[in-house]
Structures are given as C-alpha cells and as structure tokens.
Write a structure and sequence with these properties.
It is a single chain. With 359 residues, this protein is of the alpha/beta class. The chain has three domains: 185 residues, Lambda Exonuclease, Chain A (Alpha-Beta Complex), CATH 3.90.320; 67 residues, no CATH class; 33 residues, no CATH class. Helices cover 45% and strands 14% of the residues. The protein is built from 14 helices and eight strands. Strand 7 and strand 8 form a beta hairpin. Helix 2 packs antiparallel against helix 3, helix 5 packs across helix 6 and helix 13 crosses helix 14. It is globular and about 85 Å long. The two termini are 43 Å apart.
Length: 359
C-alpha cells in the first residue's frame, strides 16, 4: 500500500514517480524551512487561543525574531477575518485515511480545522506566491471523514503570509470524491510517469538519483546555450528559460558542494594533463578595532565607513551565541536597539528578483 503525505500531493500530481519509496531521501535544511516551522508553531498557539511565544520559537528554531514576529502579525490579520468561519477551531490536527477506491493511504496535518464550520486552513510562509491546490484538497479530503454525513461542501483557505493574501476554495463532496479517484489513478502510475520541473523536483526525495531529472537538467543546459552567443534574444526567450535556469542553478550549487567534499579527500583528475585540487591561499585580513586608531592618525577617519565593513548578521549571531539559553532573541533585539539609538544602522535599498502574481 502506498502512503502519500498531503504536503507532497502537488509534487505527486505532477510526477507520479516521486511517490515511490526512497531509501536515501534528499532532505536539505534551509533558513526558510526553519522560519516556516517556527511560524507554524506560534500560529498554532494563536489558533488554539493561546498567546504565541515568539521569543521561545525563534530561539528553538534558530530564526530571526523580527521575521517571525512579522509572519505572526500577518497571520493575526488573516485569522481576524477567517476565524468566524472556523468555530471551535483546532490547530495542527493530524489525520490519516485510506481513500476509495484504491485504498491509498493519505496522511497530513492541517494547520487549522473546524468540524462545525467544515473548514480547513493551511499557512504558507514561502516567498513564492504559488498555490498548492492538491495539498489543500488532501486536507479537505481527510477532514471529510470527520464531518457529519449531511455535509455537502467544504471550505478551504490557503494563506500566503509574506504576500499578505489568502486563497478561498469551496468544494462539494462530489468534487472531492472525484479528486480522490484522480489522485489514486495518478499514484498508480508511479514508475511509469515522470514530470520533472521546478515545483515537482524542488523537495523530491529522489533528486539525487532520478534519471528523468538528470535529463531535464541536461535539457536546461541545452536551452540556455543560445544565451551564451552574441545573437539577439527576445524578452519572451529569456522569460521562457527562467524556470529551467532555477533548476540548473540548484543543480550547480549541489555539484559545487559535492566537489568540495571530494576535494577534501584528494585531487580530482580532469583529463590526462589537468587535475582540480584544494590549495592554500593567504590573504590579509584587517582587524577593525585595531585599524580604527591608525585610520584616525593618518587622517582617514572620515573614510572609515568606506573601508571597514561590519556584518549585521554576524553581530546578531554573536549576540545570540553569548546570550543565556532562551534569551538569544532578546539579546539580538537589545543589540539592534542600541545600534539604532547610536544611529549606527544605515538603511540601504537594493533591487532583487522575485516571482509574483500577474494581474
């Protein structure tokens, strides 16, 4: 019997073979993932009527306290609107069912469930405003088994915290049963159907062993090749290659990590005459606290801010490391408040790329 988690449903509906068992799953950790875990913890406290402990969650999951507080603030705004639709709501409800007709074992933990309101909710903390309709349908399908038999439809909400928006859905029981049948038929195609792409490959446990993904990455290389030439390219060509370039970028990052690990054990032969190896490179590093008096003595004190750089992230990490257990977030807030008071923090604005919804 195949078991599928609701959080994997959008991937599985795009690539049935990603549902196959994996002996050595690819499971990376990231700052964004830790922020998501911490946000879900404080939002669960909010849904359950408790006062969220932002400091404790930020310390436990090693995330920035201010970022977490911002996610919670947006969650409060959304919950203020949606909570009337969630009477007697419960947070973090673990559910599992065998779906008809195949008996597929579906599991999941919905972020908020209301039996009386026949409603489920899923918090999203990622930067990309992409919807996860199948994950949300999975939660709704699991909730259906817990609702009174006379319920005719379910409400479902996907809340995008960083964007400050939410997507409402209303599905009839008939629609849910038809979707469950479609899911069962898709899972039955595991080992026969592959659908590599930015969404389906991103968190797939088979990333490092999948031949279909390898072929997709090779195709991305071929597709990007025209941009290396001197000929003119159109905006449509460049935009059409964005998703493939992201897949290739992640593949290159993982390749660099593997190269680094292997070089630690010795050189890598490139061909008959060349090899890649790790070499020591010595650079001079200026100690800011000792350099400052010298700069003043030489009349360069006014240009000190140009020559010396202090990392805000490194300072925050140092404040956390030096604080007592559970007091890291408070230490960081105190440090930033002192720096603000001393006018030592200068706000700068830089442009960066982000995928958003078209209107």
């Amino acid at each position: 019997m195949t078991t599928v988690r609701c959080s994997a449903l959008d991937r599985v509906m795009a690539c049935a073979s990603s549902a196959l068992p994996c002996d050595h799953p690819y499971s990376p950790e990231s700052d964004e993932a830790r922020e998501g875990t911490a946000a879900h913890a404080v939002l669960a406290q909010m849904v359950n009527g408790e006062e969220p402990d932002v400091d404790a969650a930020a310390s436990e999951h090693r995330v920035d306290r201010d970022i977490l507080a911002g996610l919670l603030s947006r969650g409060r705004l959304a919950w203020r609107e949606l909570s009337p639709l969630f009477p007697e709501a419960r947070a973090e409800v673990r559910m599992e069912e065998h779906l008809p007709p195949s008996g597929l074992h579906l599991t999941g933990t919905t972020d908020a469930l209301s039996i009386d309101g026949a409603a489920v909710l899923d918090w999203k903390t990622g930067w990309l405003p992409s919807d996860h309709p199948h994950q949300l349908r999975g939660y709704a399908m699991l909730a259906l088994a817990r609702l009174p038999p006379d319920v005719e439809e379910l409400l479902a909400f996907e809340v995008h915290l960083r964007a400050g928006t939410y997507e409402p859905h209303r599905w009839s029981v008939k629609e849910m049963l038809a979707w469950a049948d479609k899911l069962s038929r898709q899972v039955a195609r595991a080992g026969q159907q592959w659908g590599p792409g930015p969404v389906s490959c991103h968190y797939c446990p088979h990333q490092t062993t999948c031949q279909a993904r390898e072929d997709y990455v090779r195709g991305a290389c071929t597709s990007l090749a025209p941009l290396a030439g001197t000929g003119a390219v159109t905006r449509e060509q460049v935009a059409g290659l964005w998703d493939q370039s992201r897949v290739l970028s992640r593949a290159l990052a993982r390749y660099e990590a593997v190269v680094g690990e292997m070089l630690a054990a010795g050189p890598l032969p490139l061909d008959d005459t060349r090899q890649l190896e790790l070499v020591d490179e010595t650079r001079d590093k200026i100690t800011p606290s000792l350099a400052a008096p010298v700069l003043h003595r030489l009349g360069l004190g006014g240009q000190m801010d140009h020559y010396l750089r202090v990392s805000k992230g490194a300072l925050c990490d140092a404040a956390k490391a030096g604080a007592a257990k559970g007091k890291g977030a408070a230490a960081v807030r105190g440090l930033l408040a002192e720096l603000e008071s001393a006018e030592a923090i200068e706000k700068t604005t830089q442009k960066h790329k982000r995928v958003t919804r078209r209107v």
